[in-house]
Amino acid sequence: MIAAAPVFLESYLAGRWVRGEGEGAALVDPATGEVVARASTVGLNIEGALRYAREVGQPALRALRYAQRAEMLGRIADVLAARKDEWYAIALKNSGNTRADAAIDVDGAIGTLKYFAKAGAALGEAEFLADGEPQRLARDPNFQGVHLGIPIEGAAIHINAYNFPSWGLWEKAAVALLAGIPVVAKPATATAWLAVAMTRAVVDAGMLPAGALSLVAGSTGGLLEYARFGDAIAFTGSAETAEIVRSHPHVRGAGIRVNVEADSLNASLLGPDAVPGTSAFDLFVREVAREMTSKAGQKCTAIRRAVVPAQHIDTVAAAIGAAIDAIGEVAPVVSPSSRAAVERGIDALAEGAAVVYRRAARAGEDQAAFVAPVLLRTDAVADIAHDIEVFGPVATLVPYRDADEAYDLARRGGGSLVASVFSADPAFLAASAIALGATNGRVLLVDPSIGDSHTGHGIVLPSLVHGGPGRAGNGEELGGLRGLWFYHQRTAIQGPAPVLAELASRAVRV
Ligand code: NAP
Fold first, then answer.
1. Mean per-residue pLDDT, 231-240
2. What angle do CA 308, 347, 395 make, to 5 degrees?
3. How far apart, in whole angstroms, are the C-alpha atoms of residue 461 and residue 358?
4. Do 267-464 and 45-263+474-509 have the same topology in CATH?
5. Does 367 score more than 80 pLDDT?
6. Nearest Cα to Cα of residue 180 among 49, 70, 58, 50
7. Domain boundaries, the chain
8. Tens digit of pLDDT for each residue in 12-58?
9. Residue 2 — pLDDT band, cuts 50, 70, 90?
10. Which of 136, 260, 282, 365 is least crowded, fewest Cβ atoms below 10 Å from its Cβ?
11. What confidence score (pLDDT) does residue 1 get?
12. Eight-class DSSP state of 119
C-alpha cells in the first residue's frame, strides 16, 4: 500500500526535510503520462547541506569503526526489506516497472546493503585500510614504509541515473557509509520518488547519525559548484553529462576525485561451436531476449550488440524474435520523452541496419511511454551499431566470420561495462576472456554447465567490479571491499619501524 502520490517531493538537507520553490519538474507515470509528483531544488541551501555533511556527518561516522558502520548498513537493509511492497508500488507508478523489473532495483539494493553489512563486519575495529605490510626501505631495518588508506575528509556526492532510483542510491551509499564518508545523494529527477520515499523510511527509523545521509530531490542545484577538495563525486548517467561533470571548472580546478559510470554498448558473443540446436545457442537466445526486455532495456549493462556467426544470423534473429514474443509483459520506458529518444535512436540505427523484428503492440501498449522491442541487423562494416546507445528494448545483431573478427567487433564499443560469451568450448571461452578483458569491466562466460545458475549478463553483483574502460566512463564501483579505496587516500607512510607497526595494527588489509 502506498499513500497517494506526494504532491511535492522534499529534499533532506542538513537534517531537515525542505521543499524547493516554484512549480517544480514533473515526474510522470510512464504507462499513462499522468503527473505523479513534482520536485524542485530552487532556493534550497545545497552549499549548507554539503557543509553539514562534512562538519556534522563526517565526525559522527568517523567516530564509529568499520564493523559498527557495517551494522548500520544491515539495519538500513532491514528497514527497506520490511516495506518492499511499497517500493514496488512506487516503482510501478513512477518508473513503469513490472514486479520483476522492480526486484532488480529494490531487491538489488537490499542485497547490496546486506553484502556490505556482512563483508564490512569482518573489518572489525580498524580505523583505516592498509595495502600490504610495513617493509624495510634502507640498510637500516628501522626505516620502513607502508601504504595506508586514510578516509577522505569530505562528503560523497552521488549523482544517479533515472533507471535505478533504488539500487543506484544504496549501492553507492553502502560503500561510502562503510568507509565513514557522509553521503549527499542526487537521484535523477524523473524517477526520484522511490529514492525520496526510501530515504524517508531510513531517516525515520533513526539509526543514522545526523548528517550521514542527505538527499537532493530535483535538479543539481549547484552540487558541483559547492563541491570542494576532499569530497568524492560518483556519477552514473550518460556520457554527455559525465563529460560536463568531469570538465566542470570547479571540479577540475580543485582536483576533486570523480568516478564515472556512463553509457555502454555491451556485446554478447555466440561462439562458433554454438550452432542452432545446441544448448549454448538456446542460452544465448534466452539471454539476448531477456536483456532486451528486462526493465524495457533500460539497464546500462543491457546487451546492445549481439555478435553472431554470419551463417546463423537469420536463425538467431528468428529465435530471438520468438523468445521475445513468448515473454509476457514488457514495461514502458521511463517517460514519453524517453520514448521519443528511443524512437529517434531506432531511426538512427535503421540508417545502417535493417529491422528484423519488431514486437506487435499489445493491448494498452499503444500510449504514453511504451516502445515495442526491436531487433536490428547490421553488417560488419557499418559503424552505427557501435556508436549510439539506444536506451530501450533495442539490440542489433552483428555478423562475424571468425573469432578474431568477433573480438574486433566487440571492441568497437570503445570500452564497455560487460561482455558475455556463450559457448560449450572451454578453450574459446578462456580465449574470449583474455581477448575481451582489456575493453570490458566484466566478462561473463556461459557454457551449459552454468546455464541455469549464472546470474545474467546485465546483473551487477556487489562482490564483482562494476564499471568499464573508455566510453563506459573508466570507473570502478563495488568489487567487494576493494571498492572502499575510492573513499580513502592511498598514502605511503615512511618512518621508524615501531611507529609503522603501531599504525599497521590499527589498519585492516583489503
Ligand atoms: P543523465 O541524463 O546523464 O543524468 C544522470 C544524472 O546527472 C541525473 O541525476 C541528472 O539530473 C544529472 N545531471 C544532469 N545534468 C547535470 C549537470 N549539468 N551536472 C550534474 N549533474 C547533472 O542520464 P540518465 O538519462 O538519467 O540515465 C541514462 C544513462 O545512464 C544511460 O546512458 C545509461 O547507459 C547510463 N547508466 C549507466 C550506468 C552505469 O552504471 N554505468 C547505470 C545506469 C545508467 P536530472 O535528472 O535532475 O537532470
1. 95
2. 25
3. 31
4. no
5. no
6. 58
7. 45-263+474-509, 267-464
8. 999 999 999 999 999 998 888 889 999 999 999 999 999 999 999 99
9. low
10. 136
11. 46
12. H
Residue 25's φ and ψ, nearest 5 degrees, are -80, 145
The CATH topology of domain 45-263+474-509 is: Aldehyde Dehydrogenase; Chain A, domain 1 (3.40.605)
Give tens-digit pLDDT for 133-174: 999 999 999 999 999 999 999 999 999 999 999 999 999 999
Q: Is 27's C-beta closer than 6 angstroms to any atom of ligand 1? A: no
Q: Is 279 in the pocket of ligand 1 (CB under 6 A)?
A: no
Answer yes or no: is the C-beta of 238 below 6 A from any ligand 1 atom: yes
Which one of the listed residues 171, 291, 300, 477 is annotated catalytic?
Answer: 300
The CA-atom distances, in angstroms, between 215 and each of 132, 175, 196, 203, 325 are: 36, 16, 7, 11, 40
What is the fold of 267-464?
Aldehyde Dehydrogenase; Chain A, domain 2 (3.40.309)
Could you tell me whether strands 394-400 and 305-309 are parallel, antiparallel, or unpaired per DSSP bridges? parallel
Ligand 1 atom closest to residue 472's alpha carbon, by position in its atom list:
41
Q: How far apart are alpha carbons 39 and 24 in whole angstroms?
A: 5
